[in-house]
Amino acid sequence: QVQLVESGGGLVQPGGSLRLSCAASGFTVGVYTIAWFRQAPGKEREGVSCSDSSGGSTSYADSVKGRFTISRDNAKKTVYLQMNSLKPEDTAVYYCAAKWDIGRGCTFADYVYWGQGTQVTVSS
After folding, report:
1. What is the 3-state secondary structure (H, E, C) of 60-121?
2. What 3-state DSSP class applies to 29?
3. 18 and 121 Cβ atoms separated by less than 8 Å
4. Running DSSP on this structure, what letter comes out for residue 56?
5. Which of 56, 69, 73, 111 is the most exposed, having the fewest neighbouring CB atoms within 10 Å of its CB?
6. Cα angle, residue 68 at apex, residues 112 and 74 outer, rounded to 5°
7. At 52, is the pLDDT very low, low, confident or very high (cuts 50, 70, 90)?
8. Cβ-based neighbours of 117, under 8 Å, separated by 6 or more
């Protein structure tokens, strides 16, 4: 059974940091592209960052470039999102998602497997 389980969310003050984790099971993580998405109340879901299966190709939304870093440990079947210099506008439910890596880098389209999400709230 394919599962993606996010953790690491919480309440943090502006300027603070959090590291989200996405633990995968039931499939071979090392051949899947993994992405992080987020959805704030009243807004559409948006792609935040993605990593191809090797971690050699990554992509970031303009709003998080220079502040967020995606990384992965395929041996541990875990993908991370390090979030620094957090802003109130980063408040959202963060989801990880997976799709088969077809060898063309990573995009935010056509994800097949999704986690349940973890809440991130940035507030003073």
Report:
1. ECCCCCCCEEEEEECCCCEEEEEECCCCHHHCEEEEEEEEECCCCCCCCCCCCEECCCEEEE
2. helix
3. no
4. S
5. 56
6. 50
7. very high
8. 6, 39, 93, 94, 95
